[in-house]
Amino acid sequence: MPILRKNKIFLVAFLAMFFINIVANDIEDLFFVRYLVQPGITVLLATFFWMNSSHLIMQERYFAMLALGCLLLGDIAMFNHVNETWFLIGMIFFLFANISYTLALQFNSSYSLAKVLLIGSLMLAYAYTLLTFIVGGLGSYYIPVIIFMVSVFGLVQTAFSRYGRANPISFWMVFTGTCLFLLSDSIIALNKFYKPLPYGNMSSLFFYGASQFLIIVGFLKQQVQQSYALK
User: Fold this and answer.
1) Measured between alpha carbons, how far is 226 from 193 in angstroms, rounded to an integer?
2) Taking each helix axis from N to C terminus, what angle separates 113-138 and 142-160, rounded to the nearest 10 degrees?
3) Model pLDDT, residue 38
4) Which of 55, 177, 200, 227 has the smallest number of CB atoms closer than 10 Å to its CB?
5) How many CB atoms neighbour CB 143 within 10 A?
6) What are the residue ranges spanned by the domains of the chain?
């Protein structure tokens, strides 16, 4: 990965903050560290993205940065996730992050009936399975959660629609990242609306951090060559 080889300091800093964030989450005396590290990860990704994204069109850069800004605010709100108001505020910021990422990716997407039906059917099956577990605990969150799920599925659909348009490494990194983002959100939903899962918080943080790394780095590796763009 040339981008990472040229930015070893970024990679070392990201990995260090990534694992510190996960470890600090499960050690009560160190939880305060997350108030610095979790937002710091997003700021690091945003800085890295902006400094290395001059080859992307301006709309892609702005929407990606808007997504990261919303994630930053969502992360801060979710520190107090036991408070229902702050949890809902965090959901709203993550909702706008999903929409912003989707808008950033759609500039290099190509929709077809086959792509829509394939991912659409998989997402419907996924949604049905997840809802069977959490629907009993949603209460007043039913509509917000449905709206949020639609936004995540739209993001995954748009990422998949880059197939044949973006170069393969960029496609697979971004698509895998969006799938991990969905998995992280699903774990959070199960933890809150179904029952606490073993290592639920740790695994959601792991998949969330990995998802953002893959989306951002994959986005930076995008090369819209003529052979892809004409498909």
Assistant:
1) 47
2) 160
3) 92
4) 227
5) 9
6) 2-229
**8 A C-beta contact, residue 79 and residue 33:** no
Q: Is the pLDDT of residue 226 over 50?
A: no
Question: Token pair 């029952």 is at which residue?
Answer: 195
Structure tokens at 21: 């964030």
Q: How far is CA 231 from the centre of its chain?
A: 27
Q: Are 149 and 124 in contact (CB under 8 A)?
A: no
pLDDT digits (tens, 9 = 90+) for 76-99: 999 886 788 999 999 999 999 999
Does 204 or 114 have the greater pLDDT score? 204
Q: What's the pLDDT band for 227 if we cut at 50, 70, 90?
A: very low
Its pTM stands at 0.90
Handedness of CA 114, 143, 141, 72 (dihedral sign): positive
Is the backbone of residue 103 left (phi > 0), alpha (psi -120 to 50) or beta? alpha
> How many residues are given for the chain?
231
